[in-house]
Amino acid sequence: MTEARITVNGKETPISPAAPHTTVLDFLRERGLTGTKEGCAEGECGACSVLVARPGVNKPTDWVAVNACLVPAAALDGQEVITSEGLATVGADGTPPTLHPVQEEMAARGGSQCGYCTPGFICSMASEYYRPDRCAHTEPESADGGDHEHGPNGFDLHALSGNLCRCTGYRPIRDAAFAVGQPTDEDPLARRREQAPPAPVATEYTQDDSTFLRKETLAETLRLLRERPDAVVVAGSTDYGVEVNIRSRRDGCVVAVDRLPELRELRVESDHIEIGAALTLTEIERRLDGQVPLLAELFPQFASRLIRNGATLGGNLGTGSPIGDSPPVLLALEASLVLADADGERVVPLAEYFTGYRQSVRRPDELIRAVRVPLPPAPVAAFHKIAKRRFDDISSVAVAFALDIEDGIVRKARIGLGGVAATPIRALATEAALEGRPWSAETVDTAARVLRGEGTPMDDHRASSLYRSAMLGQSLKKLHAQNTEAVSS
Predict the structure, then answer these.
(1) 223 by DSSP, 3-state: which?
(2) Over the stretch 369-389, which tens digit does the pLDDT of each residue have?
(3) Which of 2, 33, 87, 329 could form an SS bridge with 400, CB 3.0 to 4.6 Å?
């Protein structure tokens, strides 16, 4: 073991004496890098965004924006971080720094007023600026050279979906995003993408009777979990970080699994896809590139890009939350989980995984190694997330459909539900009401009445039980309306 360090803006910085639960946000601010701000401490506002060098999809390294308020500093041991201060080129002999192109455009187009949110916007925008496959449109889609969410320069506005601004307004920020060009050959951060990111390092960081651990292999990690049943497992920390910040959670032993190679594989076999539990949702989205349409519908609706850059399927399933967005989709896809312990592995259908509110068949010494999704996927699929905001919100109800319809007959129906029971569930009665029957308005009306009664919806601050039930039935009718013409043709 070596001393835990993070390379920040090109300079190695010891993590000590920060406590193991100290977030990257607090770690940076304590060292004078106050451009990184705390707005919500929950990963919803993006004021804390920073760039981290991660394994790339199209190049060896991607510059990935993450919420510094959620990630423990110890989790970035051995890694490289760039803050808003580090984007500018330092001047020589006392000359002022040269602004980064993203910073220049934000200043020129009035994208900053009070400036509190600006550094976070800058880092999220820089992550998209350096996305290797971003390219200008050769055929403009509208009069201004792009659509509402993609600029003529190929900038995907969803890169900023996790950043909030309360005073400037989004139009000048959008204008700045759509005005940036391509990185030059002299750009050091662009050149950095051609080299591999820092390799994972084993970490054992202890302060004040609290320890943060990262082992090199899955086998070592599983042996550790057997020895330490009290250990808390983290990957992207998008859920754990909220507990630390809002509920002052402090654990004696935290074990990171986000960089274990065995949990970061994605394999496409003849009859299934195996997705490593520690791959981030962004990595899965870009590597699958639409191969599973239902997952492709899920990703844009799952929180924000900043969260998806850290969140994992293993984490979303491991929490056992009844309102997680991925379980309904994976239930509809008939996914299975590969659970590993020190003695071996077992495969559990997701439909048999949840046993109660935030409870599952997974033992404390087990990890979710991978998620297996059968192939081919159902031809008619949809994910309906009913929430108060279009993006970056918790669902009141989530419904996932996967249907096989042949010659106008529903041959197979799989429906996953979230937010209507103590666990994510399959709508078994509704599936039975659809299978073997015509894909017609009459069948759908009958099945929609059944779907309204699935689960045990409750009244809370997000929605009433009556509203949730109504949305269940309406969701099936919406699916029928959207797919009748496509199926009949």
Answers:
(1) helix
(2) 999 999 999 999 999 999 988
(3) 329
